[in-house]
Amino acid sequence: MVSQEMPSASRCLEELHSSDELSTSSKEVLKPSNMKMSEVSAATSKADIKPKSICHAKKWSDEVENLYRFQQAGYRDEVEYKQVKQVDTVECWPETGFVKKLQRKDNTFYYYNKQRECEDKDVHKVKVYVY
Fold it and tell me: Where is the secretion signal located (predicted)?
């Protein structure tokens, strides 16, 4: 299996040329290096934070796979899903860590397989949001 990765959030931020847009307090509070991923998600979902920039994925990864599933269901990402549905956790497959089930805004459910569903031809359509 070939190891693939998606563009990093820092690379997306470099493309913006405007890192001054974030206030010092939000940089300190939401700095991923200081927090666990679940804490970052919790902080962003409580604050109703909007993304600062967007990039398109170049290569498939586990994170791109989950973003693909959220975007198929009509959400930007896990942060927006948690804000809209008022949930603390998203149901995932324990074997792979991929999203298992999502409820759309019209209250129908999307059920996903354990295996990869985002084909190579769809990877470039996945949007990666930076907060």
Answer: none
Instruction: Tell me how many domains the chain contains.
Output: 1
Whether 70 maps to a domain, the answer reads yes
Distance CA 8, CA 81 (A): 22
**Would you say 61 and 120 are in contact if contact means Cβ atoms under 8 Å apart?**
no
Determine, yes or no, domain membership for 11.
no
Q: How far is CA 26 from CA 54, 63, 78, in A?
A: 18, 23, 19
Question: Residue 30: inside a domain, yes or no?
Answer: no
Query: Global pTM?
Result: 0.66
Burial readout 8-45 (b: 16 or more C-beta within 10 A, e: otherwise): ebeebbeeeeeeeeeeeebeeebeeeeeeeeebbebbb
Distance CA 78, CA 71 (A): 9
Domain carrying residue 103: 53-130
pLDDT in tens, the chain (131 residues): 444 444 444 445 344 333 333 333 333 333 333 334 445 555 544 567 789 999 999 999 999 999 999 999 999 999 999 999 999 999 999 999 999 999 999 999 999 999 999 999 999 999 999 99
